[in-house]
Structure formats: C-alpha cells, structure tokens
Design a protein that fits this description.
The complex is a heterodimer of chains A (488) and B (231). In chain A, helix 2 packs parallel to helix 4 and helix 15 runs antiparallel to helix 17. The longest helix of chain A is centred in the middle third of the chain and has 36 residues. Chain A has one domain: Cytochrome C Oxidase, Chain A, CATH 1.20.210.10. In chain A, 71% of the residues lie in helices and 1% in strands. Chain A has 488 residues and is mainly alpha-helical. A two-stranded antiparallel ribbon of chain A has the order 1-2. Chain B folds into 2 domains: 34 residues; 179 residues, Cytochrome Bc1 Complex, Chain D, domain 2. Helices cover 50% and strands 0% of the residues of chain B. In chain B, 49% of the residues are buried. Chain B has 11 helices and no strands. Chain B has 231 residues and is mostly helical. The chains are: A mainly alpha (488), B mainly alpha (231). Chains A and B meet through helix 2, helix 5, helix 6, helix 7 and helix 8 of A and helix 1, helix 2, helix 4, helix 5 and helix 8 of B.
Chain lengths: 488, 231
C-alpha cells in the first residue's frame, strides 16, 4: 500500500455516522432486551401502555438495529475507508461533501420518523419493510444520495483499481436498491379512493403467495446485502489494516465475491419451505442455501488465513480478537443457515425460536462485533487520540462473547424442544401437547436469553463509554498510527 | 477479465447487477399469474374485516402468530386443512408470519367464537392459563379506522379488480352512503359481546378496534367460502 502522508482525509461524515451508530445501537439493543424479557416475564408488556407490547416493539427493535445501528455503521465505515482505498479526500470536492451532509441530515429525519410512525402503529406489516410509503420514498432519496457520493468519489479517485471492500460497498448499494424498490411497491389508498381515510396507508402491489415470494426475496437478501456484503467489505479493509498483514489470497476474494453475488439471491425461498410456494422454488432455495457455504466460508477462511504466522496478535490486540471471532461466528452462522434450509430440518425449525437464535449468532457475533471493531479502529485516526482503555475492551469482549453463546444455545434448545413438542403424538397417534404446553416449557430459555440481552447491552454501554472517552479526553496522538490502534 | 472490471467501475457495477438480478427473474417471475388466482367460492374481505386486518397489522400480531398451515399431520390435526395458495388471493400484504410464539390463526374462525376472543383480548390468561400474550385492552376503547379500510376496498377493487359490489366506489359521499352497512355488521359482533364500552361505542356509531379485529379473526376459515355473505 502507498503512503497516506500526502493526503489529509476528511472524516466529518464518518464521525456523524459513528455517533448515530452508537446511539441507535444502544436504543435498538435495549428494546431487544426488553422484548426478550417480556417473553419470560409478560408483566413487562405494560410499561408503556399500548405502545409497549411485545408485538408493537418487536419491529421497532429489528428496524432500529438494522436501519439505525447497522446502516449507520455501514455509512460510517464507507465514508472512512472509501477515501483511503480510492486515495482521494472528501474535502477535495464541495459537491461530495454537500451530498454526504445532506444524506446524513435526511437519514436522521427518516430514522426519527421511522421510530415515531412504528410506535404509532403505521406499518406495512412486512418484516424488515414495515415503513409506510412516505418513508420509503425518503429512503430511496437517501440511498440514491449515497450512490451519488460513492460514484462521485470513485470518479475522482487516484487509485485506479477498486479495492475488495469497494466491491462489496458497490454491491450493497445496488442490491439493496433493487430489492427495496420491488418489495415496497404499493398503492397509497388515499389517492385511489378519492381522498378517503389515512394518507399513510397503502396496499401491496402483490397478493398472497406472490407477496410472500417478493417479501422473502427481500427479507433474505436484505440480510445478504445489509448484514453480510458490507460487513465482509469492512473486514477486508479493517483486518489487514489493524494487523498489518496482506489479504491471504486475491483469487479466494474473487471466488467469494462473485460466488456470493450469484448464489445469495436464489436462497430467499428457503424462508417459504412447506408453504404454498411451488415445490421447485422451495427446492432451489434449499440447494442454493447449501451452495452458499462455499463463498461465505471462502471469505471467512481468507480472513482467518490473513492472520497466518501472526496469531500472537490475537492475545495482544483486542480488536484482532473481535474481528477473528466475528469471522468465526460468520462461519458458524453460514453453516447453521444452510442446515435450517434443508426441508426436513426446516419442518422442525421453522416458526420456532431456533430462527431468532440463528439470526442473533450472526448479527451479534458477526455484524455487531465487526462494526464495533471497525469503529474502534477508526477512532484514533478520526479523533487523533488513542483509545481510552484496552482493559475495558477486553472486558467488553468476554462479556459480549458470553452473551452471544448464552443467546444462541438457549434458543437452539428452545427451538428444537418446541418443534419436537408440536409434532409429538401418543401411542394412538393423537397430539400429545396442547399449544400452551409448548409455550410454558420455554420459560427458562426465555429467561436465559433475556440475561444474554442484558449482558450484551452492558457490553455495548462499555463500548459507547470507551468511544466517548476516546473522543473527548484520551491522550492525543501526534501522528496517525500505521497499523495497530494505540490504546491505553 | 476481473482485473479489467476492477479498473472500470461502471462495467463492474453493471456486472454485479446482472449477476444479482438473474435469480429474481428465473425464480420469481414465472409463477406470478398463476399464484394470484383465488380458490373457487372465495369472497373478498368485508370492509369491517379489512379494518380488523388493519388492527391485526397495527398491533403486529404477525410477531407471534402465523397464518400458514403446513402439510403435516401434526399441523392439520392441530389447526385444520393445510393452507392453499388460492386462499391468499385477496391478502395484501400476506400475513403468514415467520414465528409461532402463539398458535397459527389461518383457520381460527372455525374453532373460536366472538365471546372467546373478547375474553382473550381483554385478559389472555382468563381463557388460556399460562399464556404469555399481553392483554390488548386498548383495543376496547380505540376507534378502528373504517374510512381507511373502505379506501383499501375501493383501491383493490379499482386497481386489482377484486370483486366488490357497485356500492364500493371512490369519494367521501360514497363512503358515507356505505357506512351504515359497516356499522350494522359491527353491531352484530358487538351484540355477542359483554363489554359495556364496546356496546356504547357501537351504539354511538363508532367501531371499536376489538370489534373489527374479532370480525376479521372470525373470517379466517370457512366463513369466507359461504356464498353471498359479503353483502
């Protein structure tokens, strides 16, 4: 890599998104912990009247952690790393700075409106696409602005070849744009009915089985293009930067990237196994889910082998710990997913707590770990101060790792227990359990999961405190660290 | 080729887009026309039921309840006939859900009554001891948005050709003319309920959320196949 000495990068936008990532991360995970606790202790449903029930808060949790925390993390790392891999500063173009600031401003409005409208109950009731049509339009504008900033930066770049992390950011931009547009196609009823009723309401362009297909084409691939693609892009940038190691294999990066692009989209129908979607689509979903192990593990192994010969860093640098464990959880999660996508396993797993269990070993162990490590790496470079406390990072790491393990193990047991009880029959072939038996049996696992939530949020508060202290009162640095992030 | 693509961002982006769009074209499009046809004898939701579906969406029942009975003996024994694609033809959006913290509801109208739902929504543990579902008491006092439900009926009739009668048409006046039918239907539900607030509201020409919701829940199942019930 070339020396960065000549260029002064501008981190204004990256900093803004760092603040929102911390804020929304805390809020989203706090709501998540509350709703986890509600399943174990139902009295907690009545803290906020009609606005505090599990059902009303659940989409708020998912949306705040996805569109608040994760997307902020994506934008923060993009506006930080894109300048550096393209060898061009945001400050060189007034236009790009303006687009970036406008995008952030609109993002803040959209995120606030999302929280308010969803609390009030305005929803399309499509998972991860709850926002009603006026917000959808605003999000399209925000997304287009991101694309403008991205391609404008690419347009004035000095480094001609795009680095691997840029491939993933471009794919994130295109993939989400396509999926979001098609899935949110809806007709606002106010205009077609001659001005009757609420202006917020719309009906989906698709009905029944078609709506389900489009929704899970989106639902699954939102996971792909928000929780996987840009996060892989992050680790390709931040792990080599923090460790000082070159990426293990360029060919493996190529295979993993193009493989992931081609295969991921097919797998969406594995959310609809045993449904009214035609069998051939269900089988395609299963098969491609299994094939998906290849590109997923390709990236993860490429990252782990990048550390070859330098494993001592794992004991010395907590940020390397976070990133290596993130890769490992990514491998676990991308093996578990295909297993659940096999039809016979899905017959037990679907509709049970094994599914949120699977989601969370991915989003906590992979996405959140990676984003927090990336923000930690960025902090000394953006704020020109060393990281406030290494001990605190170490403590946070073990606390949150414990939390993730408690979360997914309890949900594995809960899910398989419930799946087996639903189908259990006695010697005469009658169902053995009424539905409520399969609910009350889960109480201990729900309590463990709530505890896991408390531990993870506590870890996140430690992260936030460490970040804020780094920004404000840590020792100042005279020059930018080259690899390992300095920490006290 | 890949080295060249990495130096030419435009063609790189086009390449990525083609590769990711391909699956959607092959997998989703071919089935579109077929999957949207209703099964024989299926009627659309009434306006009151649509208002109930809005309550179902607003309080986000899909967080815990599915509407999809899979073709296994354990499921058909518990919930009834497995679900057919054509039964969802009038469902915009589909409300299959992805998690069963509570039981499936696709045929709940076949085996639960207005009276049961009233007790259950007021205090779930009164009819299901050990239930972890929250009470939804606010639905007994909140007013359901029948105007928006009516607007939805007009929209799906005009845009998607859902077979509603001639009395469902655009404009405030048409809505005012149609309103008594909605209220009459609401009264039938409220007559089977005990809650005094609910009865008072319906008498005053308003539809409480719980009445619309129960009307919707009762429609899930065989009642939507009875001929001519829509009017």
């Amino acid at each position: 890599m070339q020396s960065n000495a000549a260029l002064e990068y501008d981190y204004t936008i990256a900093k803004l998104y760092t603040y929102t990532a911390i804020l929304f991360g805390f809020v989203g995970m706090l709501i998540g912990t509350l709703i986890a606790a509600q399943l174990a202790f139902p009295d907690l449903n009545y803290l906020l009247g009609e606005y505090g029930t599990f059902s009303r808060l659940r989409p708020l949790h998912t949306n705040v952690v996805i569109y608040g925390f994760t997307v902020s993390g994506i934008f923060a790392t993009f506006y930080y790393s894109a300048q550096r891999v393209l060898k061009v500063s945001m400050a060189e173009s007034k236009f790009i700075m303006f687009v970036g600031k406008l995008q952030f401003f609109l993002y803040l409005i959209a995120a606030t409106a999302m929280v308010i409208t969803e609390l009030m109950g305005y929803t399309q009731s499509k998972e991860y696409a709850q926002m009603e049509w006026p917000l959808d339009l605003l999000i399209v504008v925000i997304w287009v602005l991101w694309g403008v900033a991205m391609f404008a930066l690419i347009g004035i770049r000095r480094e001609k070849a795009l680095y691997i992390s840029m491939w993933y950011f471009i794919a994130c931009f295109l993939g989400v744009a396509m999926l979001y547009l098609f899935n949110n196609m809806a007709v606002p009823t106010y205009f077609t009915s001659g001005g009757v009723g609420s202006i917020m309401h719309s009906v989906s362009m698709y009905s029944g089985t078609n709506d389900a297909l489009v929704q899970w084409w989106w639902g699954h691939n939102a996971v792909a293009f928000v929780f996987t693609v840009p996060i892989v892009g992050m680790i390709y940038y931040f792990l080599p930067k923090e460790s000082g190691q070159s990426v293990y294999s360029y060919k493996l990066s190529l295979l993993s990237f193009w493989g992931l692009m081609f295969v991921y989209l097919w797998a969406g129908s594995h959310h609809l196994l045993w449904s009214t979607v035609p069998d051939w689509m269900q089988t395609m979903g299963s098969i491609f889910s299994v094939v998906l192990i290849l590109p997923s593990w390709g990236s993860a192994i490429n990252m782990l082998l990048t550390m070859k010969g330098e494993w001592n860093q794992l004991t010395e640098n907590p940020l390397i710990k976070f990133m290596v464990l993130a890769s490992t959880f990514y491998m676990l999660s991308t093996l578990e997913g295909p297993i659940q996508a096999i039809k016979s396993v899905n017959a037990i797993a679907h509709f049970t707590d094994w599914i949120p269990g699977h989601v969370h070993d991915g989003v906590l162990g992979w996405v959140a770990f990676m984003i927090m490590a990336a923000l930690f790496h960025m902090a000394p470079r953006m704020f020109k101060r060393e990281i406030y406390s290494k001990k605190l990072i170490e403590a946070q790491f073990w606390l949150q790792t414990t939390a993730v393990v408690l979360y997914f193990t309890s949900m594995w047991i809960a899910g398989i227990t419930q799946g087996m009880m639903w189908r259990a029959v006695d010697e005469y072939g009658n169902l053995m359990y009424s539905f409520i038996d399969t609910v009350t049996v889960l109480h201990p696992y729900y309590a463990i999961r709530a505890l896991a939530g408390v531990l993870f949020v506590t870890g996140f508060v430690m992260f936030a405190y460490n970040m804020i202290k780094t920004m404000t009162s840590s020792r100042e640095l005279s020059e930018e660290p080259q690899f390992k992030s300095p920490m006290a | 080729m890949f080295h060249w693509l990495e130096k030419n961002p435009f063609f790189f982006a086009v390449g990525v887009f083609l590769v990711i769009a391909f699956a959607g074209l092959v997998e989703i499009l071919p089935n579109f026309a077929e999957a949207s046809r209703p099964v024989a004898g299926l009627r659309p939701y009434t306006v009151l039921e649509l208002a109930g579906k809005e309550v179902y969406k607003k309080d986000n029942c899909i967080a815990c309840h599915s509407q999809l009975i899979r073709p296994f003996k354990a499921e058909t024994d518990r919930y009834g006939q497995y679900s057919l694609s054509g039964e969802y033809a009038y469902d915009r959006p589909f409300l299959w859900g992805s998690k069963r913290t509570g039981p499936d509801l696709h045929r709940v109208g076949n085996y639960r009554t207005t009276d049961w739902h009233e007790n259950h929504m007021w205090e779930p543990t009164s009819v299901v001891p050990g239930s972890i579902m929250p009470a939804y008491k606010h639905q007994f006092t909140n007013t359901a948005d029948i105007a928006t439900a009516y607007a939805e009926a007009v929209t799906v009739k005009n845009v998607f050709h859902v077979p509603y009668g001639d009395d469902i048409k655009a404009g405030e006046k048409a809505f005012d003319a149609y309103k008594p039918k909605i209220l009459a239907e609401a009264k039938k539900v409220a007559d089977q309920m005990k809650n005094k607030d609910v009865k008072d509201m319906v008498a005053a020409g308003k539809v409480p959320e719980v009445v619309a919701l129960i009307s919707y829940l009762n429609s899930l199942g065989r009642s939507r196949y009875e001929a001519n019930k829509v009017k």
